[in-house]
Every structure is written in structure tokens, then in C-alpha cells.
Prior knowledge:
- By secondary structure, the chain is an alpha/beta fold.
- It folds into two domains: 7-89 and 158-239, Type I PLP-dependent aspartate aminotransferase-like (Major domain) (Aspartate Aminotransferase, domain 2); 242-367, Alpha-Beta Complex (Aspartate Aminotransferase, domain 1), CATH 3.90.1150.
- It is 37% helix and 15% strand.
- The chain has a seven-stranded mixed sheet with strand order 1-7-6-5-4-2-3, sandwiched between helices.
- Pyridoxal-5'-phosphate is lined by residues 71-73, 96, 98-99, 138, 142, 167, 169-170, 189, 191-192, 201, 203.
Amino acid sequence: MTPDLDPSTVVVHAGRPERVPDAPLGESPVFSSTYIAGGDRGYGRFDNDAWAALETTLGALEGGRGLTFASGMAAAAAVCDLIPVGGRVVAPQHAYSGVLALLDQQAATGRLTVDRVDIADTATVSVAVAGADMLWIESPTNPAMEVADLPALAAAGRAAGALVIVDNTFATPLLQQPLKLGADIVMHSATKFIAGHSDVVLGAIITASDELWRTLEQRRRSLGAIPGPMEAWLALRGLRTLALRLERAQSNAAFLAQRLLEHPRVSLVRYPGLPDDPGHARAAAQMSGFGAILAFELGGDGPGAQRVCESTSLWVHATSLGGVESMLERRRRWPIEVPTIPEDLIRLSVGIEHPDDLWADLEQALKA
Length: 368
Ligand SMILES: *Cc1c(COP(=O)(O)O)cnc(C)c1O
């Protein structure tokens, strides 16, 4: 494809079959556990047309080569497997709880050691990364909404000889391209914005290094955490409309962040799009939009926050994010969530409904 197309065009057109007479417009999932001998594909755990189409599209958006996995965690686990035995990882204090739990489990068995840092504190991270094998970054972080300085951290990680990974789930490949900012590997929970309809669990990594891609592809074969063909096809179908979905969800999020900021019951709002947010300048420099996730707090009131989550009728009280439907949850309802995340922090995943309907429902729930 033409290299200078806008990402909102690339997301629609990348990963399509060649335009020859009678070709279909999109690749179809191949439902076969094996292939006739003599070719490169060999077996269903190694390759599938639906994976390849999704991988090509994600690669075109992020500026590298894609590889899909059974879930975001399967992708994260394959990446963590790159750490040498006894190696050291620098990871955010606040990040997706499943990734932090995976690292803790691996540390508990002696497989590796983990140093947890405030990922928004560039000076501290740059010191901690000396001698480390991997720097795991998430930005904005789930659910604290901290913003890491990606170019500075990628440079510090590389200078220290550490592999630099960015979990780009919250930003999506349309709003932030970490490979272009110096990262080695981008990881996604495609379950979220990429698939976008709360009906698929899927993960992906993208890297510009052919060597890393080949190593990770071998890991996927060995670990066996492959996506189903149907899931990959659904995720690509969802991805085609990401630009439109994000446009609406993002403007809804900006509107709701402002409303929450003005609400007397709300003590703190974290959304990088707010001019006074600590991550605003960084996000404005490295993202092309501020995304559709925000977090707010109710001044230390955990049970009160739980009541708000249970008092909505339009907002879906559920975990996960990035779907067309707006969702909310109090993250500390999960025992696995990091204890420094406040008890009363509510994470909003803003969908594509009408903003007035979303605010009306949230406002009545805040009276609970
Ligand atoms: C959900 C999520 C994951 C895990 O992805 P799954 O698809 O649920 O395995 C990883 N990172 C972030 C930021 C997430 O939100």
C-alpha cells in the first residue's frame, strides 16, 4: 500500500487479498487443523489466513510485523519468555494486573527478578533499567492512567541493553505507535479496542525486528497459545471500524471527564486529555488522541464507589474495556489488583453511545 496513507485509511485497507477478478474483499478464516503436505503451512498451529490478514493489518499500523496469540496474556507470556533465566525486568508499579501477576509468579519460582517503578517517573526508571534485561512499559497505565515518556524510556532501555516492550492496549495502534518512538516490541490485548465488540479474546505483538519476530513465532508454535481462526477473523472485522469508534468514544470521554471534574462527589479525575492532568503534555506529544479510558475517585469511599458501579442502567458493570458499549468497574473489587490503586477508583471505558445519555446515567448513579 502507499506508504503515506492516513492510519484511518490503512486500518480499512491493509491485510486484504490481492485485487484480481473474483477475489473476495477480505480473507476468510480457514477451518482446517492441517494442510496437504508439500507446502510451507504444514499444520493448523503454525499458520492461518485469518491470523495473517490481522497480523498484516496490525503490522501496517504499528510499523512492524504482527503476530497474533490466543489472548493478550498469551502474547505477554510469550514476550516474558524472552527474558533469560535469572534475568531482571523493570516493570511499572501500576499496570495491567494480569501482567504484573505473571511477572510475580515467575519471580516466585526464581525464573526472573522484577523491580517495580513509577513508570511516569522517567529519572527513576532510567536508573532502575541499568543492567536489566527487559523494560516493560504500559502507557497510559491500567487503571491509574499514568503516562510514560515513551521516547525517553525507550532510549534509556536501549542504552542499557534491555528489550523495551510497550503494552499499547489503551492507546490502540491508531493513537500511539511505540515502535516509531524506539520500542522493540508492542503488545496488545486485541480483546479490547482492536476487536471492539466485547465478543473476542485475542492478543497480538508487533515488532520491526525480523529476528525477534522469528523467535516469537517459534515461541507461539511451542507454547501453543494460538488464536482460533474465527476469533482472528472477528477481531479484524472489528478493527476495520476502529477509527470511527475511537473518534466518537474519545469525544465522549473528553466530555465525561469534564463533567466528572465539575461534580461535587468526585475528588479526582485522571484523563490525559484534561489540560491539568499530570500526563497531558506527554500524551499530547506522543499520542494523536487521548483515548477513551478514564479513571475517577470519590474521596476514599470504597463502598460508595461500589454502589455507583451497581447503580447504572446504561453503563455496563463489568470488567474489560474497549467495546462499543460503555463499561465501568471499581478495580479493587479484584483481589489481584495492586493495593496502591485506591479502593474508590472507578475505571470508565467509554463507548459510542450518545454523550448525554451516558452522563445522565452516570449522574444518577453518583447520587446512589
Ligand atoms: C486486558 C488487558 C491485558 C490482557 O489481555 P487479555 O486479552 O485479557 O488476555 C493486558 N494489558 C492490558 C492493558 C489490558 O487491558
